[in-house]
Amino acid sequence: MDIDAWIWWLIAAVGLGIPLVLTAMPEFGMFSVGAVAGAVTAALDFGIVAQVLVFAVVSVALVAVVRPIAARHRDGRAGHATGIEALRGRQAVVLERVDGSGGRIKLAGEVWSARTLDSGQSFEPGEQVDVVDIDGATAVVM
User: Fold this and answer.
1) Which end of the chain has less neighbouring CB within 10 Å, N or C?
2) What gap in Å lies between CA 86 and CA 110, rounded to an integer?
């Protein structure tokens, strides 16, 4: 029983697809696509050198092009702060005098209890303050 080269390339593509599923490493998928390209080259009766060359070129091209795009999308998601993290660094307006023991501010359209980061500091109504942290339900400002 003699198996054609394109079948071996498809077996290699499946073999490279299995670690893709198990490890979620997209590079295996790119190599798998390269193996499919090698199978197409073999089916068109090109020699083994052309098949290996097509496999290498397609695989490297996919890794070089797709990987940076995927990394850019992955890094873009990390920049979206939500919840308490989204409030840190924002500005607020003092509604009631804020000092080390307490006070009230308007932050993101809501009234929050607040205290100063430095216990010796105080802010009067109408002043702008920066939110440094959120401690429970209290904004820590400076």
Assistant:
1) N
2) 14
